[in-house]
Amino acid sequence: MVIGSLINNLVGYEAKRKRLLKRASEGPLRDFLSVPFPSLDTPISKVSILAVDFETTGLDAKADKLLSVGFVMIENEQIKLSSCYHQIINTKAKLEESNVIIHQITDAQKEQGLPLHVVVEQLLKALAGKVMLVHFARIERQFLQQACLELYGLVPDFPIIDTLVIAKRQLDQRDVAYDPSELRLSNLRHKYQLPAHHGHNALNDAIATAELLLAQINNKPKTDKIQLRDLIL
Questions:
Q1: Do 81 and 131 form a contact (C-beta atoms < 8 A)?
Q2: Model's pTM, two decimal places?
Q3: What is the pLDDT of residues 85-139, one digit of tens each?
């Protein structure tokens, strides 16, 4: 049943991509939709992956705003640090004190950031033909879809690998109770003996998520046989 669901998911992604491509106007979203998604049977070592993280003013994609975007590419199970990208977004929303404390992004820094449409265009260009990697997919999926709706009038789907879901599946298989805090990025990294990282920075968290995925993959038996179908949401 799980494999069937995953197959339906990617078939659904491709079908929706083709449908939206016919409706999309010339521009960044159409360029993104013009590139097919990877096949489910692609070995994970051959899948182009983009680890992505957003910092936001809150958790509601409709009411809150994107503050910054960070991403880094994984190719052939290697993190390509030369592909690192980090950008603060010049949102019109005035930052609350809690935002500044958590994300260390001030109003002055925000005002020097790039407009949302520029940052989303750069992200879509980097994502074309790749699978997005995140930790806790709801934030990145909903905020990126909301940004596309506002900028282009369309809501695309994005094939996603979620390191939190990978960890949850493993814990659920044990059929014993566990503390949900075990699924936090920092705690999972500690489990795999990865070094502590400075969180609440979009690029730092994207790199941290990329490192966690590689640790999760290499901890599985028969690593060379892991396919995209085994990890995709």
A1: no
A2: 0.91
A3: 999 999 876 666 666 556 777 777 867 889 999 999 999 999 999 999 999 999 9
pLDDT at 3 over 70: no
Residue 69, Ramachandran bin (φ over 0: left; ψ between -120 and 50: alpha; else beta): beta
Q: What does the alpha-carbon distance between residue 70 and residue 80 come to, in Å, rounded to a whole number?
A: 13
Q: Of the ranges 41-45, 108-112, 203-207, which one carries the lowest mean pLDDT score?
A: 108-112
CB 67 within 8 A of CB 105: yes
Among 133, 116, 161, 149, residue whose Cα is nearest residue 29: 149
Domains in the chain, ordered, with CATH?
Answer: 2-230 (3.30.420.10)
Angle between helices 202-218 and 163-173 (to 10 degrees): 40
Q: Give the model's pLDDT for residue 98.
A: 66
Sign of the CA dihedral 50, 221, 227, 3?
negative
Task: Check: CB of residue 163 under 8 Å from CB of residue 209.
Answer: yes
For tokens 């083709």, the residue is 18
pLDDT, tens digit, for every residue of 133-185? 999 999 999 999 999 999 999 999 999 999 999 999 999 988 888 999 999 99
Please check whether residue 55 is in contact with residue 139, taking contact to mean a CB–CB distance below 8 angstroms. Answer: no
